[in-house]
């Protein structure tokens, strides 16, 4: 008769197997087992002498196999926390990154708090930015756009699950989805990786349309900056996330299209990631 493995033994072995492919092997092992057993991480520890039944062990082995092959943990668990909101995440959307919380922070800071303004989130994906803003500002009238119908489905599911139904979801190519509308604030974390960038190899599980933007990586940022003045009220703000080396190019583009008070801010790990500017004239 073969010995039945306990939760403690399974976790030790899994963390060892994940060592080469994850920065947080033990955490990943616990999150995946928690998903299979429907238990929190603290419950796993509290019950770590419990034996695993064969069915659960098989399901867990399959999830581990996918993680070893590079599938992001968020796609395997189906969720990711962003701005303290538990978001549903599927392979149709970019896994929201902690650095994007810095964009949310600057967007909140740049506008007055208790004024009912119109806000646009371009390339909303899971809805991470739009829903974070909606959770903080009940008076804001927020519209969010994506070119991917599958991404908008995930965003709408998040909107319902989080009981933040005020965001309007629009399908389309950047401003084509809101052709004659103007906003007080436009935010975007668009694709900004160059088509041939070697970093793409480690991002193969995520949708390519969420990642790449032409030879220089600046195609989406350029298109948004060029069209934004026609969609901003006088004195409105554009707040953009970009790659860590792209701040000078984004600053130049903003100046070229008439933006003032242009500044760049670093994310929580010190990389220049968010650039914003205001448009004062039409
Ligand atoms: C980097 S992801 C950002 C997702 C989300 N805002 C976040 O921060 O996690 C970029 C998003 O832009 C969308 N996108 C790409 N090209 C687009 C276009 N031409 N028009 C509208 N959305 C586009 C992608 O589908 C993707 O959801």
Task: Report what the structure shows.
By secondary structure, the chain is an alpha/beta fold. The chain folds into 2 domains: 7-70, Ubiquitin-associated (UBA) domain (Helicase, Ruva Protein, domain 3); 94-279, 3-Layer(aba) Sandwich (Rossmann fold), CATH 3.40.50.150. 37% of the residues lie in helices and 20% in strands. A 7-stranded mixed beta sheet has the order 5-4-3-6-7-9-8, sandwiched between helices. α1 (7-18) packs across α2, α2 packs antiparallel against α4 and α6 packs across α7. The mean pLDDT is 95. It binds S-adenosylmethionine. Residues 93-94, 96, 100, 123-126, 128-129, 145-148, 151, 173-174, 189-191, 209-210, 220 line the site of S-adenosylmethionine.
Can you describe this structure in just a few lines?
The chain has 282 residues and is α/β, with parallel strands linked by helices.
